[in-house]
Amino acid sequence: MAPPTFTVFTATYNRAHTLGRVYHSLQAQTLRDFEWLIVDDGSTDGTAALVAGWRAQAEFPIRILYQPNAGKAAAFNRGVQEARGELFLNLDSDDACIHTALERLLHHWEAIPAPQRESFTGVTSLCVDQRGLIQGPLFPHTILDSDSLEVAFRYRDEGERWGFHRTEVLRAFPFPVDRESRFVSESVVWFAIARHYKTRFVNEPLRLYFRPDGAGDHLSELSPGAARGRLPYHLMVLNELLEWLPVAPQEFLRSALAYSRYSFCLGTGLRQQLGQIQARSMKVLIVLVSPVGWLYGRRDRRRFS
User: Fold this and answer.
1) Is the whole model's pTM more than 0.85, yes or no?
2) Predicted confidence band at 215 (pLDDT cuts at 50, 70, 90)?
């Protein structure tokens, strides 16, 4: 049997109550050339039995792999290694997609001239929430061939997005896995890929993003694991992305403050913080924001205790 075009990947942990959204939206797809690969990250809520029932009746192949709870990054890496599809599409365990999503993603991918596709990692689309509202601004063009770095720094894009990458590209850029925090900012990987490959961004909403009512502000609510997981992203900005400083200086100020805050929160002093910063200009910036970072870090530590 020929491998599928898409591997639709879902990492799940005790999401039996929402996983049906993914299954039913895949069952409704107009394009059938895909497999659904699930990595069950240690669920104890009957997920395995639920998926077994779907496998018996689904009109597409379903594979489920079980692992002890290790976090989404570890589950994602395993999914990439086990994927049989050429294109790897992550669909979270509490979301869904419109019935033509795979068909439209493939359409946009094949619209890239074949000789140019090797320089692209994939296609990224828009998302809508459960009320049908687009989450975030539109891209500056209906079809935009760019990369995650330019979209983030030049176009200041912070909306909910959804798309696929070529599986072989993801295998070359695995997520760093922190067994203690079990979390890592996804942009660490997306930005690394962006230095080598372009992405086609399209102003077409294809994913349904279910925003929980009363969700907290992740900037004000923090755990030690989240602080550890976010640090590598801000360190990457301050050390490796200085070419974007003239374009988006406010992003470097934000990363300097976040790096200082999370470091103080985790008990890392200013001298140690500066030892991890390479550019003199960024060292100066860390010193300037350190009083504010120290105050936020002290507040975080008090909340933890």
Assistant:
1) yes
2) very low
